[in-house]
Specification:
Layout: H1 10-18, H2 24-34, H3 47-72, E1 83-87, E2 96-100, E3 107-113, E4 117-122, E5 133-135, E6 139-142, E7 147-150, E8 156-158, E9 167-173, E10 176-183
Antiparallel strand pairs: 1-10, 2-3, 3-4, 5-6, 6-7, 7-8, 9-10
């Protein structure tokens, strides 16, 4: 809808002298004519409302982070049940065996070291979770990125891993070797 403007009218001359082509009240009326939708004043979102929402959301995220940090440090559920790993005498010197612990989704490696005897570690490399294998030179090797761990301590010797392998505590009952718990380090 185009409205003709009389260049000689008083209203046009007044708008030109003030530098306003369309005064605010008139613009609002024209807008309402072109977009005749009901507009409840309570539904207007102001800058103050937006700022309140953003600050409230930030506060909620901050509180949730604190709560999660506290909950993460609470004692875990019941301890994992001991899992039978091998029989005494099953592994000869420098032999190793992979076993499921604490469940079928995680594995450990049991090694019979020449001077130390039986040790067990998680067989998941602390770099990018590849499986490690034992070498007779007394190291655990991660083939993915050439990480090396000391088989007697689990400490990093070379490569990209920065943390030692988690130790798996062993217990011997009768002639059976049990994996008892993972000791993170």
């Amino acid at each position: 809808m185009i409205q003709e403007v009389d260049p000689q009218s008083e209203a046009t001359k007044q708008r030109r002298s003030t530098g306003e082509a369309n005064p605010p009240a008139r613009r609002n009326e024209e807008w309402r004519e072109e977009f005749p939708y009901p507009w409840d004043e309570d539904e207007i979102v102001t800058r103050r409302d937006t700022l309140r929402f953003l600050l409230g959301g930030s506060g909620a995220l901050f509180a949730a982070t604190g709560i999660l940090a506290i909950l993460g440090n609470l004692p875990k559920g019941p301890d994992v049940q001991a899992v039978p790993v091998a029989k005494l005498g099953e592994l000869k010197e420098n032999e190793w065996k992979v076993f499921d612990f604490p469940d079928q989704y995680a594995q450990g490696i049991l090694i019979n070291l020449p001077r130390k005897g039986l040790v067990a570690y998680s067989d998941v490399c602390t770099h990018l979770s590849c499986a490690v294998v034992y070498r007779e030179n007394g190291t655990l090797h991660c083939p993915c990125h050439e990480g090396l761990f000391d088989a007697s301590t689990g400490n990093v010797l070379a490569g990209p891993p920065t943390r030692p392998l988690p130790l798996i505590e062993l217990a011997i009952e009768g002639d059976t070797i049990y994996a008892v718990k993972v000791v993170p380090r």
